Amino acid sequence: ERGGLSSVLDCKNCDERYVCPMEGTIRFATFEQPCPAGAAATDICYENSQGWDCPQGYGCGPATTSFTQYDYFCEAGFWCKVRTVPSETRNLLCPAGYYCKRETGQSGGSGRYAFRCPSNRFCPEGTAAEDVRVDNQLLIVLENVQSLVSIVTQPDLERGSMCRICLEDADPGVFDLRRCKPCGK
């Protein structure tokens, strides 16, 4: 009972934008840290040490675990930073001159600048790509999400995300939606 945690029932939900590895509603701390002013000399205080950032290319809501961290992927035509929540998965359109597949992140092998538009094609902002097999040949089908009425005009009801054109220099979780423009304009 030292430090006030006596069982898993004392744990709290993992915050949105983070993944906590243990199943269920977990944020069980193991690292000691200085206690706040007024704490008893015998108290042992803990730091929330078990969570890590939601991976790029995905959105994480509250109580996300390592089993559920890939449930809300960034849709094709969009890209997602680390620490994205599901309602922000349509905030960043794929940059012009590139296409984005499902689960595209900010950087790396599948980052927003990983898939340059083919030289004989035009890829405006928001170009989505899907790998399709036809007669045992792998083809990449390109489509612009801003031309899809259902994406531009209707929110994703499960995630609460709406297609928006937001500035990509905003830090995760600091999207000022007043500075975002609706897609398709």
Give the SSE map.
Blueprint: E1 18-19, E2 31-33, E3 45-47, E4 52-53, E5 58-59, E6 72-73, E7 127-134, E8 137-144, H1 149-153, E9 164-165, E10 181-182
Enumerate the strands of the largest sheet in spatial order, edge to edge or round the barrel. 1-4
Number of H- or I-type helical stretches: 1
Overall pLDDT:
79
Strand content: 15-25%
Structural class: mainly beta
Features:
1 helix; 185 residues; two-stranded antiparallel ribbon; single chain; mainly beta
Quick rundown:
This protein is mainly beta and 185 residues long. The protein has one helix and ten strands.
What does this structure look like?
By secondary structure, the protein is an all-beta fold. It is built from one helix and ten strands; from the N terminus they run E-E-E-E-E-E-E-E-H-E-E. The chain has one helix spanning 149-153, and strands spanning 18-19, 31-33, 45-47, 52-53, 58-59, 72-73, 127-134, 137-144, 164-165, 181-182. The longest helix has 5 residues, at 149-153. It starts with 17 loop residues before the first strand and ends with a strand.
